[in-house]
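Allow me, if you will, to draw on your knowledge of protein folds for a short while. Thank you for your consideration; the sequence and its tokens are set out here:
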Amino acid sequence: MPEPEPYSMLDWATVERTRIADGTEFVLGRHGDGWVIRVGALVLMSNRMHDSEESLAEVALARVSNPRTVLVGGLGLGYTARAVLDRVSTDTDVTVLELMPELVDWNRRYLGGLANHPLADPRCHVVVGDVFDELKRSPGAFDVILLDVDNGPHGLTQAKNQRLYGEWGIRACLAALRPKGVLAVWSSGPNARYQRRLERNGAEVEVLSVPARIGAKLRHFVFLAKARA
């Protein structure tokens, strides 16, 4: 979820860095109480702009009565998982899928306090793995599926992530929902092609524009989809 920063990345200290299999470098950076994860010069996520991630959980959960199982695709800095945990019951099972083990480790060692330690909540189970693979083996398993993977349907960091937003990924998402379940997808911008793809695969779709940060002009988007009766 790239965003502009008000000053040069040269001001940010590198805390840790890692490379994925294709050579892409991810950097955990800090400047005072600000934290970022960036890919090259692009900020992928930041604790200074996360309201739309919380909105992703809020608007989806508002459309499902008493969800028992929730899947969060993409850990990020933990804000989406925290927004879910704050809105579900004490016996709801929340599974967080994250492809990068380093990101889980950074959350545990450095970033947990940003979102009030969602990974320490006993309802939250973190799985290191591919969301697409988990969906394929989980038909009818979830009341709510939240996807905040890469940059949304407009990919940025890993080509493999685009499987989630293509035909097969959409079918896997919809098949993994329980009756009356909801799929919610975060996106950095509008995407009419993705909306048509959802509808073509039998989904009723809402597209919501939400503030990237409360009070900011920048908007992000949430696609809400459920299988037609």
About this structure: The helical segments are 51-61, 79-85, 101-111, 131-136, 167-175, 192-200. The first helix runs from residue 51 to 61. The two ends are 33 Å apart (CA to CA). Residues 180 and 226 are 7 Å apart (CA to CA).
